[in-house]
Amino acid sequence: MLVPDPKTVRRLLTRYATLRIAQAERHSPVAARELEDITYTLCVMTGTAGIREAVTRADALLAQEQTAPAGRTTDPDGEKGRCLTV
InterPro entries given for it (predicted)? Predict the structure, then answer.
């Protein structure tokens, strides 16, 4: 299974939250379109159909990254040092 780069996931989650807050304060068509794009990207990266599940999986991925042993260079599939980012 492909695992997205945690840094990219964190950046997308941060941008998603920022846009949701901005939209709640004042609607902007430009921000709404960017929010749609970020939502789609998070769903694709996490293999989910909805944003709630995508955020849950993204949070789990980030929590897993924090508990991974330091210096680990091989992922569960045996790939060394390769990060895939969408």
Answer: DUF5133
| Contacts with 61 (C-beta within 8 Å, 6 or more apart), sequence order | 3, 4, 6, 9, 46
Cβ atoms 45, 9 nearer than 8 A: yes
19 close to 38: Cβ distance less than 8 angstroms? yes
Residue 64 burial (CB count, 10 A): 11
Contact 65/6 with Cβ under 8 angstroms?
yes
Contact, 27 vs 11, CB < 8 A?
no
Tokens at 43, concatenated: 């769903």
Segment 5-25, tens digit of pLDDT: 999 999 999 999 999 999 999
Q: What is d(CA 19, CA 37) in angstroms, rounded to the nearest whole number?
A: 11
Q: Which of 34, 33, 32 is nearest to 24 (CA)?
A: 32
